[in-house]
Design goal:
- The protein is mainly β and 325 residues long.
- The protein folds into two domains: 112 residues, Methylamine Dehydrogenase, Chain H (7 Propeller), CATH 2.130.10.10; 116 residues, 7 Propeller (Methylamine Dehydrogenase, Chain H), CATH 2.130.10.10.
- Helices cover 0% and strands 54% of the residues.
- The protein is built from no helices and 30 strands.
- The strands form seven sheets. A six-stranded antiparallel beta sheet has the order 14-15-16-17-18-19, with no helix packed on it. It has a four-stranded antiparallel beta sheet with strand order 1-30-29-28, with no helix packed on it.
- The model has no long low-confidence stretch (mean pLDDT 96).
- It comes from Aureimonas endophytica.
- This is Anaphase-promoting complex subunit 4-like WD40 domain-containing protein.
- Pfam families: ANAPC4_WD40.
């Protein structure tokens, strides 16, 4: 069994990531913890952290808080304030190509360019999530009854993608051909962007809260069931009329977090009881990375080489798994 460096933060772990190979954990109390080699604490957000998301394109952790600030963190001594909008909660965050960052509060979305230029977008409904397309400056806004596609560098009207219900998360496929949303109900919805064709992904016993694209974008792994559900996106029609893979089935123990390996067709799966498995796509072979813990796995992330896996739970127990032993 791989070795684990355990940590106990006594607080909800919102996100885990690696910055220059070093693990960092973002807690909802507003702190960032760098525990390797002696813990260093960054007091990031007064009042509490509301959202944190790793920006792989720029190798930094983006955070937002109840203090209305948006930060970019590259290390314990490298913390940059990107924006401050007063005493308004930052609801969502997204990193995009060439250092662009999107964030929102209520019905306002903001797009910050690398040169610090800030553009406001006023929306008729509350912004539930943001996502940038992998190429070009195109922004998806998840909202009630669908999603809107903006081109923030222009004044053109947004493209409206409609589907009844509350859409609370958004992600583009790595090739930019599909937009997928998580819904308040136990389902995903998607659109093939070239023609607006709908894709329904249903059958979950619980709401999907965690998702991850595989290394080559062939699968979208999701939580929300007693197994990791991986929808196929390799063909022209994506998951339409195709059955998903079901990996790591554990009876009634729900999957709460997923993270696809950065190079291999393998997924790390975290469960409600704190267990973590690594499962291979091709033959569903499983490896136990952690047998259990105090709380449900809420955050999970690989390092660049795929040899280390950071995790954190809703009870504050966390750690780094070393797959090399």
């Amino acid at each position: 069994m791989p070795s684990i460096a355990p940590y106990d933060f006594e607080g909800f772990v919102e996100a885990a990531a690696f910055l220059d190979g070093e693990p960092v954990f973002a807690l909802t109390d507003g702190t960032l913890r760098f525990p390797a080699g002696g813990e260093r604490v960054v007091e990031a957000h007064g009042g509490g952290l509301t959202v944190a998301r790793f920006d792989a394109s720029s190798n930094r952790l983006l955070t937002g808080g109840e203090d209305g600030r948006v930060l970019a963190v590259s290390g314990p001594e490298r913390v940059e304030e990107l924006a401050s909008i007063g005493r308004k909660w930052i609801d969502t965050l997204a990193g995009g190509p060439n250092g662009v960052v999107g964030f929102s509060t209520g019905r306002k979305a903001y797009v910050r360019q690398a040169d610090a230029t800030l553009r406001e977008l006023d929306l008729p409904r509350t912004v539930e999530d943001l996502a940038f397309a992998p190429k070009g400056l195109r922004l998806a806004v998840a909202r009630y009854d669908g999603a809107s596609l903006f081109f923030p560098a222009t004044d053109s009207a947004p493209v409206q993608l409609e589907w009844k219900g509350a859409h609370v998360g958004a992600r583009f496929s790595p090739d930019g051909r599909f937009l997928v949303t998580r819904m308040q109900e136990n389902a995903l919805h998607g659109w093939r962007l070239e023609d607006g064709k709908h894709m329904r992904m249903t059958g979950y016993p619980a709401k999907v809260k965690s998702w991850s694209w595989s290394a080559r974008g062939r699968f979208l792994a999701t939580s929300g069931a007693p197994a990791a559900i991986l929808w196929p996106f390799s063909g022209k029609d994506g998951p339409m009329n195709r059955a998903p893979l079901e990996l790591g089935t554990r009876g009634n123990s729900m999957v709460t977090a997923v993270a696809c390996h950065p190079d291999e067709d393998m997924v790390a799966i975290g469960y409600v009881d704190g267990m973590i498995l690594a499962v291979r796509f091709s033959d569903a072979r499983e490896a136990v990375l952690r047998r259990g813990g105090k709380g449900a796995i809420n955050a999970i992330a690989w390092n660049k080489t795929g040899r280390l896996l950071a995790f954190g739970s809703d009870e504050g127990d966390a750690g780094v798994v070393d797959l090399t032993g």
